[in-house]
Specification:
- InterPro entries: Mini3_fam, RNase_III_dom, RNase_III_sf.
- It holds the Pfam family Ribonuclease_3.
- GO terms for molecular function: ribonuclease III activity.
- The structure is a single chain.
- With 260 residues, the protein is mostly helical.
- 50% of the residues lie in helices and 2% in strands.
Length: 260
């Protein structure tokens, strides 16, 4: 038994090795994350003499421009700078239409139908810009523009210019020249009548003529008709109809004999 105990003590017992997993990270830019960069301190303005610290505040920022400010365009009656009118707005020329080709005598080169073709496009662009603000749906845009560009509305606008004695003798001569346009729009002429259609075509002829010869005068005339670039929800044609109806009813009542 003693030999067995001695043999048992002499036999080494197997030891268990524990496995360890080492995780390490290498810093490719040592010292960058540990260096604290001081932030620049904003120096507060000192209150003026006799002013309490509570009232000494930084000047308020100007409010951002609204949509009406962005779409607004300096008109003829706005303030001038240094005695001269501003020729630019937001860094651009205030004339917003594409430049017209240089034509000295449009009547010798084009016929009245060609100028009316050009004036129709210019007139509709003024109408679209007039109703562009405030934002509306596409269907509402089209409805308002179509009410203004049809020949009945153009006839009302022309009567407005003639009634206010706004046009010059040369411009009236252009109107007479533009009334003799022969068009293939038989459906429109039947709906509105030949006289109304011819007067509307003469207005488009005048617009095309002024676009080629005197753009400043064109701007004055369109502004006289009520076309603006700011916020507008008015329907020019409806207002003209109501005003003409009031004028007609007043004239009819004045012509009726007084009852005894």
């Amino acid at each position: 038994t003693m030999a067995t105990v001695a043999a048992t003590m002499a036999t080494p017992t197997p030891t268990r090795h524990r496995q360890f997993r080492v995780r390490a990270a290498w810093d490719m830019n040592p010292g960058a994350a540990t260096v604290a960069v001081p932030k620049p301190s904003k120096a507060k303005p000192k209150p003026a003499l006799g002013q309490s610290p509570a009232t000494a505040t930084t000047p308020a920022r100007a409010p951002p421009p609204t949509h009406a400010d962005l779409f607004a365009r300096s008109s003829e009656d706005q303030a001038t700078t240094g005695g001269t009118k501003k020729s630019t707005y937001m860094g651009f020329e205030k004339w917003w239409l594409p430049p017209a080709p240089e034509v000295k005598k449009p009547r010798s080169l084009y016929n009245a139908a060609s100028l009316a073709y050009l004036g129709d496009c210019i007139y509709e662009l003024y109408a679209r810009r007039h109703f562009f603000f405030p934002p509306l749906s596409i269907n509402e845009y089209n409805k308002r523009v179509m009410d203004v560009v049809k020949c009945e509305s153009q006839d009302l606008l022309l009567n407005k210019l003639l009634g206010e004695d706004f046009l010059t003798e040369e411009e009236r001569d252009i109107l007479r020249w533009g009334r003799n346009i022969v068009s293939s729009k038989t459906r429109t002429r039947k709906r509105a009548g030949i006289a109304v259609y011819n007067r509307a075509s003469s207005l488009e002829t005048l617009i095309g003529y002024l676009y080629l010869t005197n753009f400043k005068r064109l701007e004055q005339m369109m502004f006289q008709l009520g076309f603006t670039s700011g916020a507008s929800s008015q329907n020019i044609a409806d207002e003209l109809r109501s005003s003409f109806q009031k004028t007609t009813s007043t004239s009819v009542q004045s012509q009726q004999p007084a009852k005894r």
